[in-house]
Amino acid sequence: MRHFTVLRVYPSVTLPTLRSIGRTASLHMQVLSAFARIVLFVGLALTLAACSQFAGDNRHNIPLGKSVIDRLSAIGSSPSAPMVIRVYKQSSELEVWKQTSSGQYALFKVYPICKWSGALGPKIKEGDHQSPEGFYDVTPALMNPKSAYWLSFNVGFPNKFDQAWGRTGTNLMVHGDCKSVGCFAMTDEGIKEIYALAREAFKGGNRSFQLQLLPFRMTEANLTAHASSPHAAFWANLKEGTDLFDAARKPPAWDVCEKRYVFNRNSPNSAPLNALGQCPSLTSTFAVADL
Questions:
Q1: 93: closest CA among 106, 107, 80?
Q2: Which end of the chain is more exposed for a tag (fewer CB within 10 A), N or C?
Q3: Among this protein's residues, is 183 annotated catalytic?
Q4: Helix, strand, or coil (residue 225)
């Protein structure tokens, strides 16, 4: 009786029907499983794209514009020629100098600095929000094509001088945007051209370019105006190097001894000086850094 009662209550649920339902459910599960895998794959791809926003981005290889190349040619230079960058905090300016066919350097262009941080004076320690000052050498390893601030390059802080004084700090950059916590922000438009000029100089076989980070234009008048600053002696030391550049129109070879900068004191091929040791005599000088 129970068998016949079940048949009357569920007259349409036959064995073939149950099998069909099972096959349909299995198919639906396969479809859902495949859909889930697709969703997971897409989600993973989006996550990776978010973490690596520069995937496939070629911004660091954008060629220099014709107007830039024409202007370089007008001063007797080329994209592959050596370069020097000078930064002045007080006037918020960055200068790019390029070597010309004469062997001397000529001013190529002055770029406005959108923002730098801190006050006039060197960076002392990590977290002081101070933009650095001094002489630095930027190498290809310091170029950052995947910067969160469009493009950037590390200034090389702390250098030999900074280390001799126990100064600390990391990731001090010249970059795009207009935000600075110890860096020099050039805006995206500015860093595009500056980065490309540096890139092409490296492609030309140059191993580095000199970066002079200065508080102001190193004139006697400016030093006199800041004579009461605790950094006056440091700035006078920097002026020794900038004066050599201004006179010869060539970047001086810099090194450190007795915890101060010295310029053109040793051959580019000789051993580096001891930053804490005695400085060599001025028996011989060398006019240009081995770039």
A1: 107
A2: N
A3: yes
A4: helix
Q: HSE-up of 70 (CA within 13 Å, CB side)?
A: 3
d(CA 113, CA 185): 6
List the structure tokens of 140. Answer: 């290809």
pLDDT for 214 beyond 80: yes
**Whole-number pLDDT of residue 9:** 43
Read off the pLDDT of residues 17-49 as tens digits, 9 standing for 90 and up. 545 545 554 544 454 455 445 434 444 343 333
* Of 134, 89, 97, 71, nearest in space to 288 by CA: 97
d(CA 65, CA 189): 13
| Residue among 175, 231, 257, 279 flagged as catalytic | 175
Cα gap 206→219, rounded to integer Å: 30
- CA-CA distances (angstroms) from residue 60 to 45, 69, 150, 173, 194? 23, 17, 9, 16, 11
- More confidently predicted of 25 and 204: 204
Q: State pLDDT tens for residues 246-283.
A: 999 999 999 999 999 999 987 767 899 999 999 988 75
Q: Tell me the sheet residues that pair with 213.
A: 87, 134
Q: What is the pTM of this model?
A: 0.79
The verdict on whether 175 is a catalytic residue reads yes
Q: Which amino acid, residue 127?
A: G
Neighbour count for residue 77 (Cβ, 10 Å): 22
One of 60, 183, 257, 279 is an active-site residue; which one?
183
Contact 201, 82 (CB under 8 A): yes
Length of the chain measured in residues: 291
